[in-house]
């Protein structure tokens, strides 16, 4: 009688683990027990097969739901625990492909190249750098092709041979009742070939961890979340397969003066009561390095927007610039000198005389309420 081990226990995860946790645990265990890294140890090979089978089921939402409900019975005898469901007889897909090539553009198939994984790098820039653009260098840690074996995984002077189990196809077929199930070859793990004498540097994987310094050109006008793609600078594919890409996600740091909305720049400008009443002007330095003059018309009210045409951010990969919008905030003084109080009292007195000549607001209020 065969003992059926719980898939969650195989991966060392709780039953409510999310997909990212399952994948992370699988990846660590798969790399630890891969036969190529353990001298063909039978125990490790069996462990690797169990890990691969568990992850193949739990990574698929439908398979996982069936397993959570019916256990291993969900995949036996053409039914989901005899409850009228159906088993998935499509077979196990290439396990290593799901780890190293699923992000973007991974390929299936026996000896087809399995593209390396795409990588992400987050780069923070200032608003001024987003305006003018920037040429910079970044340092990333990646899996790169092994220089010793040129990424083949085989010891220099030797070559890989076709897998005798699958004949180089990378997959084997088995009859299950009326169905033919295609599975990843358990001997070569889908590679289609066997490395009898692996490279001593990369241990047959064809890749080693490296630190790379890359040049990045940030164009003018980029915004938060803009992506820059560096083709072929992601993880190298296993055994000479094409490398993935590196995606650089840009983040624009908060500016002390401006808030950005597309190509429009917004700024709050506090002005004095006297300036708002009499008019005036002030200067503001933009991210373009220029000094912009903002003119305040007499009688400007708090909350008014003053638009400076063409003083905003440049259009990404286009022509022209957005606008700069100044939001006026009239400041009411909270502490007055004796002279200021004297002047304001005189102003209030003058306003009172004007009110007698023009009944205005308060007279209309009295009339409205029968006063």
From TrEMBL:
Annotated cofactor note: Binds 2 Zn(2+) ions per monomer.
- Residue intervals of the J domain: 6-71
Which annotated residues bind Zn(2+) 1? 146, 149, 199, 202
Give the UniProt family note.
Belongs to the DnaJ family.
Matching PANTHER family, A to Z?
A: CHAPERONE PROTEIN DNAJ, DNAJ HOMOLOG 1, MITOCHONDRIAL-RELATED
The task this protein performs is described as: Participates actively in the response to hyperosmotic and heat shock by preventing the aggregation of stress-denatured proteins and by disaggregating proteins, also in an autonomous, DnaK-independent fashion. Unfolded proteins bind initially to DnaJ; upon interaction with the DnaJ-bound protein, DnaK hydrolyzes its bound ATP, resulting in the formation of a stable complex. GrpE releases ADP from DnaK; ATP binding to DnaK triggers the release of the substrate protein, thus completing the reaction cycle.
Protein name (record): Chaperone protein DnaJ
């Amino acid at each position: 009688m065969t003992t059926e081990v719980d898939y969650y226990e195989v991966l060392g995860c709780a039953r409510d683990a999310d997909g990212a946790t399952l994948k992370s645990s699988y990846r660590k265990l798969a790399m630890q027990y891969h036969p190529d890294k353990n001298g063909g140890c039978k125990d490790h090979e069996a462990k690797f097969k169990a890990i691969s089978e568990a992850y193949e089921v739990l990574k698929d939402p439908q398979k996982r739901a069936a397993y959570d409900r019916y256990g291993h019975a969900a995949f036996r005898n053409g039914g989901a625990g005899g409850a009228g469901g159906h088993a998935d007889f499509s077979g196990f897909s290439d396990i290593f492909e799901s780890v190293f090539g699923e992000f973007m553009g991974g390929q299936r198939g026996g000896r087809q190249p399995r593209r390396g994984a795409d990588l992400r790098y987050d780069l923070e820039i200032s608003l001024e750098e987003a305006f003018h653009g920037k040429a910079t260098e970044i340092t990333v840690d990646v899996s790169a092709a092994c220089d010793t074996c040129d990424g083949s995984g085989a010891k220099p002077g030797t070559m890989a041979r076709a897998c005798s189990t699958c004949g180089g196809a990378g997959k084997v077929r088995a009859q299950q009742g009326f169905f033919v199930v295609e599975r990843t070859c358990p001997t070569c793990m889908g590679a289609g070939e066997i490395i009898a004498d692996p490279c001593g540097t990369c241990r047959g994987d064809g890749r080693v961890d490296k630190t790379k310094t890359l040049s990045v050109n940030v164009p003018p006008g980029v915004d938060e979340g803009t992506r820059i793609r560096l083709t072929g600078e992601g993880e190298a594919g296993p055994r000479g397969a094409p490398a993935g890409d590196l995606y650089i996600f840009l983040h624009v740091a908060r500016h002390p003066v401006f808030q950005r909305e597309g190509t429009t720049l917004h700024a709050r400008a506090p002005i004095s009561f006297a300036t708002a009443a009499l008019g005036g002007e002030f200067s503001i330095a933009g991210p373009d390095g220029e000094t912009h003059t903002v003119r305040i018309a007499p009688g400007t009210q708090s909350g008014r927007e003053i638009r400076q045409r063409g003083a905003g951010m440049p259009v990404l990969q286009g022509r022209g610039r957005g606008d700069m919008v100044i939001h006026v905030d009239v400041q009411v003084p909270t502490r007055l000198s004796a002279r200021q109080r004297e002047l304001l009292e005189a102003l209030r007195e003058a306003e009172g005389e004007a009110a007698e000549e023009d009944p205005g607001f308060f007279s209309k209020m009295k009339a409205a309420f029968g006063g």
